[in-house]
């Protein structure tokens, strides 16, 4: 019971944080006359998932479906609010920091164009890296479902909060230190084109389903790769495959996502700070409820337990 009360309080705070970011998005967009279509449709979908969570939570009929509904709803709404936030932050038009990031990479011996040329000459390697890079959303929703169905809401809680905190920090930093990312002559990635349009003032409206991930520094892909590895840590039996996929994803980020190596270092640092902050903030609650994520039994999904 203490565990469920602990998780319930966490969900309330998570919804409050997301609501605050959404309110910031709304006020900011209204002030600068930036229009976004698709909000109503997204709200309806989130509402359905939230209703499932509330129904099974209030009736006590199925804690797995309760957790699944709540966490899936949050994982739909908070990336949307963060993406809108990133578009609005880009309208501040702070000076680009690409020159500094390129110089930092060079000082560490990382030369993006040389590595890109090497990878481009190996088609299979390029395909593998691209698949790993594009697995980000699949991994997110699959992790939420896995932890919900194996009755491990604490790992879902970690996944949500660390990603949420790191995501807010990442987007906030990107507004004050925007970057286009490395690119080859004559090839402008679509997300970079969008960022340039926002900064130039020619893009003042968009739709949710058309939005791109425009944040280069820090790398949010790096945030998620590190978080996925962390929350699937032993005794979770998915650790090895998840670590393998996300190691490949980390290798793919500079090239598939057009990132500086410095972007990845910043993303990793932000994730570590967010994880530490989460552990410190929740330590008293974990002690009161007897939760010890490091000592939980191995998690498997047995066919007999499926509903």
Describe the 3D structure:
- By secondary structure, this protein is mostly helical.
- The protein has one domain.
- The chain is 71% helix and 2% strand.
- The chain is built from twelve helices and two strands; from the N terminus they run αβααααααααβααα.
- The protein has helices at 2-32, 39-59, 63-90, 98-107, 112-120, 123-133, 136-149, 153-176, 190-200, 220-231, 239-256, 261-289, and strands at 35-37, 205-207.
- The two termini are 22 Å apart.
- The model is unreliable at 293-307 (pLDDT under 50).
Based on the model shown, name its key terms.
globular; 2 strands; mainly alpha; 12 helices; 307 residues
Rg is: 20 Å
Oligomer: single chain
Could you tell me the number of beta strands?
2
Strand content: under 5%
Biggest sheet layout? 2 strands, parallel
Average pLDDT: 87
Distance between the termini: 22 Å
Secondary structure tally, helices: 12
Instruction: Tell me, briefly, the overall form.
Output: globular
Q: Main sheet: which strands, in order across?
A: 1-2
Unreliable parts: 293-307
Write the layout of secondary structure elements.
Layout: H1 2-32, E1 35-37, H2 39-59, H3 63-90, H4 98-107, H5 112-120, H6 123-133, H7 136-149, H8 153-176, H9 190-200, E2 205-207, H10 220-231, H11 239-256, H12 261-289
Produce a short descriptive summary.
This protein has 307 residues and is mainly α. The chain has twelve helices and two strands; from the N terminus they run αβααααααααβααα.
